[in-house]
Every structure is written in C-alpha cells, then in structure tokens.
Fold this protein.
Amino acid sequence: AQTVTQSQPEMSVQEAETVTLSCTYDTSESDYYLFWYKQPPSRQMILVIRQEAYKQQNATENRFSVNFQKAAKSFSLKISDSQLGDAAMYFCAYLLGIGAGSYQLTFGKGTKLSVIP
Amino acid sequence: KAGVTQTPRYLIKTRGQQVTLSCSPISGHRSVSWYQQTPGQGLQFLFEYFSETQRNKGNFPGRFSGRQFSNSRSEMNVSTLELGDSALYLCASSFTGGHEQFFGPGTRLTVL
C-alpha cells in the first residue's frame, strides 16, 4: 500500500521568511502524481502545487516550489516570502491509478504551519 | 467556473439515524471522490464515482454508500450512524480522476 509521511506535525516561520515542509512517500510505481494541498481554518482544501513523477523539473507556482527527488521518494514544499495568509494545515498527497481508470489520493497526516508577524 | 459545492455544510444527527450528503462537481468534471477527515485517522478515501459508476471503494463498512447521477452530481449515504462517524466529509471533483482533484468546502457531520 502506498503511504505518505509528513514528519513535521507543526512548524512556524517568520513573516517574509522561507520555510520548507517535508514529505516522503512509499511506492513501487513509476508513474504517479504528487500534490500539496493547503487547508486553512475554513477547512476548504486548496490545491497548492502538483508534480508529475515523469517530469524531472521541479514545479513552481508563484511563491511555492517543490523539491522532487524521485529516487529518494521525497517531495518537499518550499514557501518563499511567507505571508500571514499562508498559515494553515498543509497536506502532501499521492495520486495513483489503481486500475479500471480509477485513481485514489493518499494523504499524509499534515503539517500545521504558523506564520509569526 | 463555479467550484465544487456541498450541501448541507453542517449536520447534527443522533446514533442510529441515516444521513445523505450531496456534492455538485465543477462543470465538466465527471469524477467525484469522497473523503472522510477526522482528527485521529486524518483523510481517508471513501469511494470514487465516474459516469454514474463506482470505480473504487475505500476500506469502510457497507453502511457507507454513494451514487452519482447523470449530471455528475453525487450523493453519499451513511446508515445507522455511529458516534465514530462524526467527521468532516469532503467531496472532490476531477475531469477524469487522473488529474488534480478540486475539493468542496465539506460537510461537518456530528453524531450525538
């Protein structure tokens, strides 16, 4: 079974600084997708960034970027110039095709990010 | 485009009752997945529907069921509610399932 591990239950960062959230996953597949989702106190899950496993180039979305190390099965999220609105739970997720055209997201336990003014 | 909508947003039920939650996906999306989120277990996959067919089901008892209509709207039903069913139920839509999934705001179910 695929597993996703986020080893940092909580982290904090000063406003305008940079923070990196860690994620590792376990899979025997070669083709899959990885995502970072943000869940603020409103509980709405918001897609932050995606990475296709077959792409070597790390994905970037404005202040958010990933460091994807396929061999190490590592997928960390870097947030630059942190803003107060970045405070939220961040979930790493792995999407795998499981046959018959179906896909399933497996989530890590999440990292609670606090931003200090 | 309008996002994923879920109704109701909040529900309070008592043990033994049943409940139906509704999810309307983003226009054009045909895949709808359901997840249960609890503090203890985190986010767990319930099931996925595509073109009115259940393609995949997570490890949940048969009390949890769902369906999808021809307009891609989906409902999930929980019968004989237990205290442990208290959770945030999230619905996510995707074009085919094999792309990023976009989530609705969730339905907070409390079982007393």
